[in-house]
């Protein structure tokens, strides 16, 4: 089909790239996301126009946060940009005169890993992005699973603890409250405050203040072999493993791909998650297990996946 442009729309930046049929990015650009949501569409269009100056492009795929309708055209709701029923496909097509599809940003990243990254060669996969929250995307029989209304895959809001911790979605006890980067920081801060002797290394890294310990400090201490920091990672991994086991019961994928900022810690996270997944998987040793692997494309997955979805 030729070259396409993939756009990854975030709360603070809009990243875009020209992508070929093999998933290679030939050119990139990045612009700040305007504070006023009414200007965001124009910023997306300007990024596309910049990339078209030196490349012959046939279509555009936009990965946008929030709920996207099944027709891949309208952003029903995107809290970080304050879009509601935004006809994003039509508005971009009017500005750039190229066929455009709109996809949820986590779905786009999952598709990038499915086609060209850690899940290449599989027909069924689930990507779990572990960052500030927990997101993901589901591919079944080689097709992105969007559900009847287009909003499937909001796995971070599975209810794991009835009447548990409040979540930004308005519910309580969502998975992302226990298995995200935010949860990792909370575990570390609480543990260091409760036992200052065991938490000495974390406190040392943060000038003795438990309340503001960061995720990167917890990761650093864990990489050094600090017992408390390793326990914190084990707690996060235990919650992730629980969720993966539930998802395996529902979808039975061949592979789980862990992405997002927290996954940058590599086997520090991957190994205990895989162990917890096996512990909680119903059927135990008698059941075939999905692989649990790390994402390989990284932050470019959203661009690559959105561009590739524009071909379908």
What does this structure look like?
With 312 residues, the chain is of the alpha/beta class. It contains 10 helices and 13 strands. The chain has a 5-stranded mixed β-sheet with strand order 3-2-1-4-8. Strands 11-10-9-12-13 form a 5-stranded mixed β-sheet, sandwiched between helices. Helix 1 (37-52) packs across helix 2 and helix 7 (215-223) packs across helix 8 (227-251). The longest helix has 25 residues, at 227-251. The chain is globular and about 60 Å long. The termini are close together.
Query: In total, how many beta strands?
Result: 13
Strand proportion: 15-25%
Structural Rg: 20 Å
Low-confidence stretches are: none
Order of helices and strands: EEEHEEEEHEHEEEHHHHHEHEH
Structure annotation, total helices = 10
What characterizes the major β-sheet?
5 strands, mixed
> Can you give the mean pLDDT?
95
Distance between the termini: 10 Å
Q: Helical amount among residues, as a percent range?
A: 25-40%
């Amino acid at each position: 089909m030729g070259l396409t442009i993939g756009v990854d729309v975030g709360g603070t930046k809009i990243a875009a790239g020209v992508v070929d049929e093999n998933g290679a990015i030939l050119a990139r650009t990045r612009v700040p996301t305007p504070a006023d949501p009414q200007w965001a569409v124009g910023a997306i269009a300007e990024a596309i126009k910049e990339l078209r100056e030196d490349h012959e492009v046939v279509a555009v795929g936009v990965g946008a946060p929030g709920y996207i309708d099944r027709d891949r055209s309208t952003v029903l709701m995107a809290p970080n940009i304050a879009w509601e029923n935004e006809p994003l496909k039509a508005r971009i097509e009017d500005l750039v005169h190229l066929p455009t599809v709109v996809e949820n940003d986590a779905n786009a990243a999952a598709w990038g890993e499915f086609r060209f990254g850690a899940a290449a060669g599989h027909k069924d996969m689930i990507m779990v992005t572990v960052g500030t929250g927990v997101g993901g995307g589901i591919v079944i029989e080689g097709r992105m699973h969007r559900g009847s209304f287009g909003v499937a895959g909001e796995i971070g809001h599975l209810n794991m603890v009835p009447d548990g911790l409040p979540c930004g979605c308005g519910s309580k006890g969502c998975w992302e409250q226990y298995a995200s980067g935010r949860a990792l920081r909370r575990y570390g801060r609480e543990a260091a405050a409760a036992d200052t002797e065991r938490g000495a290394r974390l406190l040392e890294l943060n000038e003795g203040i438990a309340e503001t310990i960061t995720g990167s400090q917890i990761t650093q201490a864990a990489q050094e072999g600090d017992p408390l920091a390793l326990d914190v990672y084990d707690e996060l991994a235990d919650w992730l493993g629980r969720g993966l086991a539930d998802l395996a019961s529902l979808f039975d994928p061949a592979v789980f791909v862990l992405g997002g900022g927290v996954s940058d810690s590599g086997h520090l996270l991957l190994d205990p998650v895989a162990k917890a997944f096996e512990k909680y998987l119903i059927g135990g040793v008698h059941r075939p297990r999905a692989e649990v692997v790390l994402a390989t494309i990284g932050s470019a997955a959203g661009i690559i996946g959105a561009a590739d979805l524009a071909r379908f």
